[in-house]
């Protein structure tokens, strides 16, 4: 083999690896992992085992990657039609659907094995139910058929919060379900803000996203309603659940106020794509910082300080 042939093989190999990596929609996975880590931090009350954290995040990444790959296989027809998704590995012909399917199944098996062997069965079953719900309920049953696709389907994106909690405690509690509810209520403003920017694409392929089947003002009103449910819900972690403390309280208050302000601005001018874009990008920052605050509040030093303060107040 000449040097040139080796270089060509190496180059082709890298391209194949890159295509499979792209199938997993990797840009979304970090935020899913941040929610898992936040949930684990709160559940462990300042005593989080770093090995458990790493293995759970690895298992969660494989599960999310599997779910996204199944979704890419199922949606390859509409992905081909839409500008935003046309260059994905399946519509552009870089990966065969059967190969992608085998890849998705393999990822799910790795995730299940990792979580069952090194974490616990409940976290593994929850991760598998996240894949099933995202693929079977959101992608197959809802996405192309009802404007409620995001509202109900959003539950899949909230499952990592449950996985994180179950990984630490082996069970689920009110706090775990509240964390689930926070991501669930966050998803419609997150997604409809984006859908307002790219509704033409969804209209072209007949996907009934809210701004496509109604109008921008109806979508902006719904975003407003969900924002007004989301922000108060984030405070329930402080009272009555007393799961987090001051750092989280400050971040939830400031970030929540900005979220409401941006949703209000969109409501005033629902045709303004810049306002929609600003809310979409902000929704990601909001969830990141909210989760970061949960982690900070669960660090041993902050956790102990909060416990002392609670005892003093009581
Ligand atoms: C059913 C629920 C959801 C839907 C339909 C949805 C949809 C989308 C779409 C279509 C994009 C644009 C991606 C692209 O440009 O290719 C996006 C971006 C993003 N989503 Fe969501 N999303 C959902 C839930 C979530 C959840 C639960 C998280 C994490 C907690 C999340 C995190 C992100 C992030 C971080 C981005 C930005 C990715 C980038 O940098 O381009 N999403 N979402
Ligand atoms: C525990 C576990 C495995 C949970 C799964 C969580 C998960 C994969 C959430 C993804 C949410 C998301 C980005 C949906 C976009 O789908 P879309 O098909 O509407 O986006 P598209 O238009 O970009 O294809």
Automatic annotation (TrEMBL):
Membrane-spanning parts: 28-44, 50-74, 95-115, 121-141, 148-168, 174-198, 219-238, 244-267, 279-296
* Family according to the record: Belongs to the UbiA prenyltransferase family. Protoheme IX farnesyltransferase subfamily.
Free-text function comment from the UniProt entry: Converts heme B (protoheme IX) to heme O by substitution of the vinyl group on carbon 2 of heme B porphyrin ring with a hydroxyethyl farnesyl side group.
Sorted alphabetically, the keyword list is:
Cell membrane, Heme biosynthesis, Membrane, Transferase, Transmembrane, Transmembrane helix
Recorded metabolic or biological pathway in which this protein acts? Porphyrin-containing compound metabolism; heme O biosynthesis; heme O from protoheme: step 1/1
Instruction: Report which reactions are catalysed by this protein.
Output: heme b + (2E,6E)-farnesyl diphosphate + H2O = Fe(II)-heme o + diphosphate
Major location, coarse class?
membrane
UniProt xrefs under Pfam families = UbiA
Task: Name the PANTHER family on file.
Answer: 4-HYDROXYBENZOATE SOLANESYLTRANSFERASE (PTHR43448:SF7), PROTOHEME IX FARNESYLTRANSFERASE, MITOCHONDRIAL (PTHR43448)
Q: What GO molecular functions are on record for this protein? A: protoheme IX farnesyltransferase activity
Q: Name one GO biological process term.
A: heme O biosynthetic process
The enzyme's E.C. designation: 2.5.1.141
Q: How does it sit in the membrane?
A: Multi-pass membrane protein
Source species, please?
Fischerella muscicola CCMEE 5323
Q: What is this protein called?
A: Protoheme IX farnesyltransferase
Gene Ontology cellular component? Answer: plasma membrane
| Subcellular localization, as worded in the UniProt entry | Cell membrane
Task: State which gene encodes it.
Answer: ctaB
Recorded hits in HAMAP family, A to Z, give:
CyoE_CtaB (MF_00154)
Q: Which InterPro entries match?
A: Protohaem_IX_farnesylTrfase, UbiA_prenyltransferase, UbiA_prenylTrfase_CS, UbiA_sf
Where does the source fall among the domains of life?
Bacteria
Q: What else is known?
A: Carbon 2 of the heme B porphyrin ring is defined according to the Fischer nomenclature.
């Amino acid at each position: 083999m000449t040097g040139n042939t080796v270089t060509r093989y190496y180059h082709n190999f890298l391209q194949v690896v890159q295509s499979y990596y792209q199938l997993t929609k990797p840009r979304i996975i970090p935020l899913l992992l941040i929610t898992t880590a936040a949930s684990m931090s709160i559940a462990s009350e300042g005593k989080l085992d770093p090995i458990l954290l790493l293995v759970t995040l690895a298992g969660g990444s494989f599960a999310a990657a599997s779910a996204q790959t199944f979704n890419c296989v199922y949606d390859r027809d509409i992905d081909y039609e839409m500008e935003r998704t046309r260059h994905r590995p399946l519509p552009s012909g870089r990966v065969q659907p059967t190969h992608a399917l085998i890849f998705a199944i393999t990822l799910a098996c790795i995730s299940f094995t990792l979580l069952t062997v090194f974490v616990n069965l409940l976290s593994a079953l929850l991760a598998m139910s996240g894949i099933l719900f995202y693929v079977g309920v959101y992608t197959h049953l809802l996405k192309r058929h009802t404007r409620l696709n995001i509202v109900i389907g959003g539950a899949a994106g909230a499952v990592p919060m449950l996985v994180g909690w179950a990984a630490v405690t082996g069970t689920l509690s009110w706090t775990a379900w509240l964390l689930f509810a926070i991501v669930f209520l966050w998803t419609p403003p997150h997604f409809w803000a984006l859908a307002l920017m790219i509704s033409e694409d969804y209209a072209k392929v007949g996907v009934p996203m809210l701004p496509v089947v109604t109008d921008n003002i109806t979508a902006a009103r719904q975003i407003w309603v969900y924002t007004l449910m989301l922000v108060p819900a984030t405070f329930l972690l402080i009272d009555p659940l007393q799961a987090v403390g001051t750092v989280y309280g400050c971040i939830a208050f400031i970030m929540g106020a900005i979220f409401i302000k941006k949703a209000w601005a969109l409501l005033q001018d629902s045709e303004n794509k810049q306002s929609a874009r600003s809310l979409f990008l902000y929704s990601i920052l909001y969830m990141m910082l909210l989760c970061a605050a949960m982690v900070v509040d669960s660090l041993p030093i902050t956790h102990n300080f909060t416990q002392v303060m609670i005892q003093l107040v009581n």
